[in-house]
Amino acid sequence: MFKGERLQAFGWPGTLDDFLRGTISAGRPVPSEGTSYPGRMPTWSEQFGGPLRLDQIESVVGFILNWEERALAGAEPTPVTGEMMGTDILVALPPGDAEDGRALAEGTLGCAACHSLSPVGPPWAATEEQPGLAVRAGLRTGEDGYLGEATTAEEYLIESVVRPNAYVVAGYPDNPNPMPPNFGERITLQNMADLLAYMLTFR
């Protein structure tokens, strides 16, 4: 998928391995021209302030290169089943499972890339300067300058996922779409319930 014309279009003089290694290590400050991906890809190598050692970067490069045959064959993604979440922050959710939410955050949805493994977005875990995400969410709706519609911690966390532009935390990118704006179209009610249950564990 990054072979031939694609690398030539980038003007990349090196190999596919080098391209992947550089992209993963240093990240991408802006999306590729002609794509609709919002925001940017964070840096992953310790060399550039990320969380991964050089040997870990090499492992990621090798893992991605193993996708090539399947990608070129046009493998179909696993279909999503269940009622989609949408953008209604007051919708009734089923009971959530925090462990399933963790799997979503660290895997499918990639939340951990910006909120746990790198400081691209507000950290979910508590720090010396501030409490965890769940506590901050409960305080946020009463703060001056909050522009969203949530009135509870749960509503605020849901809003932050499905309406990320409703309110952008001060000190973080205020450009359009600092987070993907279409999570509501990509996740089910159950996914949202699970992710919410996981986010509420960060006290």
Low-pLDDT residue intervals, each spanning 5 or more residues = none
Strand content: under 5%
Main sheet: strands, sense, barrel? none
Mean pLDDT: 81
What's the CATH C level of the largest domain?
A: Mainly Alpha
Rg for CA atoms: 19 Å
How many individual domains? 2
The shape is globular
By helix and strand content, what is the structural category?
Answer: mainly alpha
How many separate helices?
10
Strand segment tally:
0
Element string (H = helix, E = strand): HHHHHHHHHH
CATH topology of the largest domain: Cytochrome Bc1 Complex, Chain D, domain 2
Explain the overall architecture.
- It is a single chain.
- The protein has 203 residues and is mostly helical.
- The protein folds into two domains: 68 residues, no CATH class; 102 residues, Cytochrome Bc1 Complex, Chain D, domain 2, CATH 1.10.760.
- Helices cover 41% and strands 0% of the residues.
- Helix 2 crosses helix 3 and helix 5 packs across helix 10.
- The longest helix has 12 residues.
- It is globular.
